[in-house]
Design brief:
The protein is elongated and about 65 Å long. By secondary structure, the chain is α/β, with parallel strands linked by helices. The strands form five sheets. A two-stranded antiparallel ribbon has the order 1-2. It has three helices and ten strands. The relative contact order is 0.14. The termini are far apart. The protein folds into two domains: 8-102, no CATH class; 108-148, no CATH class.
Length: 160
């Protein structure tokens, strides 16, 4: 459980930048109760507590990571030697970068998208509401047996 000294601003930042997901396995908070875990323990005798991080900075956003109970146990408590401070900070940073990438607008489509849909009236393999540029060689493969209409790619404003 989080220390009451952690400011609401830091708590909101932690949850927002982690996207409400475990920073290790990325399970969403609606699926399991997440914990706000210290990277460096608040007391010197705790996990990674011997780190040089000053005691007065151990209740700040920078020293917290969001984890599910399984990851909390295996990362914070059980395998301290396998999860040093820098590795936890890197895990947190990479997860926050991943969450940021999910909210980036798609302006260019490249590669191949494979869509499998088990029947339905209308199946769209890929639909973008705003115009996006496709690179040469971009493909959408749609497998939708029993569908009335299959649209592989629809780019731009829809008349819906």
């Amino acid at each position: 459980m989080i220390d009451p000294e952690m400011r609401d601003k830091d708590r909101k930042k932690l949850w927002g930048l982690a996207g409400g997901r475990c920073s290790r396995c990325r399970v969403f908070h609606n699926e399991v109760r997440l914990t706000e875990a210290h990277i460096v323990a608040p007391e010197p005798s705790g996990p990674r507590g011997g780190d040089s991080l000053p005691l007065d900075q151990r209740e700040a956003y920078e020293n917290y990571i969001l984890l599910c109970p399984n990851c909390h146990y295996s990362v914070v408590d059980a395998c301290v030697e396998d999860w040093p401070v820098e590795r936890l900070r890197q895990l947190k940073a990479e997860h926050e970068d991943y969450i940021r990438s999910l909210s980036q607008p798609v302006t260019e489509l490249d590669g191949t998208v494979n869509v499998s849909a088990p029947g339905g009236d209308d199946v769209a393999g890929l639909r973008t509401r705003k115009t996006a540029r496709t690179k040469p060689g971009f493909n959408v493969n749609v497998d939708a047996p029993g569908s009335r209409r299959v649209t592989g790619v629809e780019i731009g404003d829809s008349s819906d």
